[in-house]
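Entry 12.
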Amino acid sequence: MIRMAEKRKKIVPDTSILISGILSDMIKKGELKETEIIIPEFVVEELRAQASRGREIGFKGLEEIKKIREFEKEHKLVITRTGRKQTYEEIQLAKYGRIDALILDVAKNDDATLYTSDFVQSTAAEADGVKVKYYKPYEKKTKLKIEGFMTEDTMSLHLKEGTLPRIKKGKPGDFKLVRAGDKISAEQLEEMIKEIMDAVRYEDDSFIEIGGHKASVVQLGNMRIAIARPPFSDGIEITVVRPIVKLTLDDYKLSEKLKQRLFSRAEGILIAGPPGSGKSTFAASLAEFYEKEKKAIVKTMESPRDLQVGPEITQYTKLGKSFEDTADMLLLVRPDYTIFDEVRKTHDFEIFADMRLAGIGMVGVVHATNPVDAVQRFMGRIELGMIPHVIDTIIYIKAGKIEAVYCLSLIVRTPTGMTEADLARPVVEVRDFETNELKYEIYTYGEENFIIPVKAAKESAVNRLARQQMLSVIRKFDDSADVEIMNDNKAVIRVENDVIPRIIGTKGKTIKQLEERLGISIEVMPKVSTLGNEINFEKEETGAYLVFVFLKHFSGKIANLYADGDYIMSATIGKSGQIRVAKDSDVGKDVLKALVRNALKVFI
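Predicted 3D structure (tokens):
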């Protein structure tokens, strides 16, 4: 491109000024009319590389170049691309300032003014005799646009393009969801995202936890902000969550007995509860209790770091992409207590256990619908006998209140309900902390671990275990199946009607395999005693089989056979409209007896 007359002002923007969006704002305000904007190839390459890695700054910089080009004719600009592509060595040296040095050379060679929002780059330009204009990248605003939606009692804000803003107001366990304002457009959300990203890069106590164009998570002061864009989500969305209360341990009105345990004995604590129940609020209160009352060194492991704790408590996040390296660091730091918020993935449970066994007091925050579910999540991830060494106390939070406190211990004895001494084994006892009442027993039977509610049933412990084993198998067919142990040799399972043929299998093959595997005779019954409408049928005998013939349009339907109102069997009517039953089978004998009494009826 032929360069314009010398009177044209020449500027060279670097990556920082393009990312900030300042240049397009200046053009819109008419501050850069009749200007030649020289964009080094290095800048475009760097922004493209950042965008390819999914980083927000890359997309913002490329979008800024696109905006500048749209203003070219209207504001009499000349946009010039100059330079060459980066070499491999220059790419390797990018993080050491090599790209900045190349941009500086372009401004010097073209006798242009460098526009930058990077203070170090500005200082280097001045030292090298290059004309430079430095623009402060961000000016703190008294209020962000998202804060305009939030009041003192706002727990969370939910914004999505094309919908009304939704605001959750109240406190854990007592809140309401309200709609406010007008529908939000994609453009409005993008403006808010730019504002958030600018603020989080330059304001104190703010950081980017997950940085990507499709999905980002940032911590801005006490606000945790999740940003999602297509194709990750079906529309642009911003979710803001923040704690609205900060409590001390005294606000929970703990008994003196529990206070004493937390102060002197509890070293492996799980804070459990459903989402939004106030678990993290209690964890923060406990962290400050240990730091102030016990004079302990307390650290946290969080991603994102949103616990509301004092400056004395250092908040760590993932080192790299995992908490594994964070744990290694903490083992060197040796805190007295570490708050792990939240323990979710298998690696998290293993890290929690490893740190606890290394002698660090651990407090883990776990999602659970009831207290014992928190223990269940450790089973299979660590050895059963190690659980009481890793977890000694479970505090269950619901609606911001402590609903239950359990303590765990290991003992060798015969499980409750068993009488023979040779059945003694290691048993993890789960007791109510305040009353010392035994709530659950956890032990191994065969090759599986079981959590048995001590008061859940009147049946013997052996039958309880047999029932648990049967349920673990049968619920692969029907996840709401029920099992009743009739005696030592027989069990009745009740399942949905369409599942019955699958459990029985062709010629009873599947049910026989289950009986052999479980060592007990199984009777399969539907969950309800009668089904649908009675249908007519014809019967035939062919050697070893009874054949029931139905109208062809019933093919593929499940037929349920009853005698005098008692269920006998279910089967799928074949393509030929038939069901075949072996005469010498137990079911066949029952069917034959019903036919002799003229008592057989079929429902569909």
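Annotation: The radius of gyration is 35 Å. The chain has five domains: 9-134, 145-241, 249-445, 464-526, 534-603.
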